């Protein structure tokens, strides 16, 4: 049995998800834009599933710890999501992968990481259930 959707089933998922790709990428971008702001906790409180897990450099966070984390992290002066790709995993589950290049206010060296997030649809809303960031030490990134 295949772990990933294949054939006609995958094509149908792809078609159904196409309408939601912009919404999912919009949620990712909004998360990066709000990180460290007073609005971050409200945004992520609505976005995270009850059992959400985040794997960040050097630590993992459950939902409660993640909500506090986004309030205390530094704000990004700028960020870019490079080569974003949304992939259907099931009829109500999608993953998005990308490389982020972000720079904090007052710092010249950017943060670079390969990221993956998994979203599940609950009550017709996309909700974040998993997020991982793997720092990239050196790359030919813009």
Q: What is the rounded Rg?
A: 16 Å
Order of strands, main sheet, comes to 2-1-6-5-4-3
Number of domains: 1
Strand content: 35-45%
Count of discrete alpha- or pi-helical segments spanning 4 or more residues: 3
- CATH topology label: Nuclear Transport Factor 2, Chain: A
Major β-sheet, in short?
Answer: 6 strands, mixed
Protein name: DUF4440 domain-containing protein
InterPro entries: DUF4440 (IPR027843), NTF2-like_dom_sf (IPR032710)
Domain DUF4440: 24-128
Helix and strand arrangement:
Blueprint: H1 7-34, H2 40-47, E1 48-56, E2 59-62, H3 63-72, E3 76-90, E4 93-104, E5 111-122, E6 125-135
Parallel strand pairs: 1-6
Antiparallel strand pairs: 1-2, 3-4, 4-5, 5-6
Helix pairs in contact: 2-3
Describe the structure.
InterPro entries: DUF4440, NTF2-like_dom_sf. Residues 24-128 form the DUF4440 domain. Pfam families: DUF4440 (PF14534). With 142 residues, the protein is of the alpha+beta class. It has one domain (7-135): Nuclear Transport Factor 2, Chain: A (Roll). It is 32% helix and 44% strand. It contains three helices and six strands; from the N terminus they run H-H-E-E-H-E-E-E-E. It has helices spanning 7-34, 40-47, 63-72, and strands spanning 48-56, 59-62, 76-90, 93-104, 111-122, 125-135. Strand 3 and strand 4 (93-104) form a beta hairpin. Helix 2 packs antiparallel against helix 3. The relative contact order is 0.18.
